[in-house]
Amino acid sequence: MKLAVILALVTLALYCSPASAEICKNFLNVIKALFLDTPSSYQATLEFFNPDADMKDAMIQLKSLVDTLPSNTTENILKFTGAVIKSPECA
């Protein structure tokens, strides 16, 4: 669970970074798939970035961990992410 929270916070940092005027939409798809899709759909989403075997394995492990989170935790992480993205600080 700690790893999922860390990933969510890193994602938020990317969204709000002054250096990233626009987040890569395909990366956003990966994050959405991490929390909402099936493992096979998530793996297909990862393929857009051509990860090597080690990266792919790490991301699959992360998906396995995220899938163990209670649904209300996942919902709250997504709500928080949405609130931060829509905040004036990230606009």
UniProtKB/TrEMBL annotation:
It holds the Pfam family Uteroglobin. One of its GO terms (biological process) is signal transduction. Transmembrane segments: none annotated. PANTHER family: SECRETOGLOBIN FAMILY 1 MEMBER, UTEROGLOBIN. It comes from Nyctereutes procyonoides (Raccoon dog). Its main location: secreted. SMART domains: UTG (SM00096). GO terms for cellular component: cytoplasm; extracellular space. Residues 1-21 form the signal peptide. The lineage of its organism: Eukaryota, Metazoa, Chordata, Craniata, Vertebrata. This is Uteroglobin. It is found in: Secreted. Gene3D superfamilies: Secretoglobin. Keywords: Disulfide bond, Phospholipase A2 inhibitor, Secreted, Signal. SUPFAM superfamilies: Uteroglobin-like. The keyword Signal applies. One of its GO terms (molecular function) is phospholipase A2 inhibitor activity. InterPro entries: Secretoglobin (IPR016126), Secretoglobin_1C-like (IPR043215), Secretoglobin_sf (IPR035960), Uteroglobin (IPR000329). Belongs to the secretoglobin family.
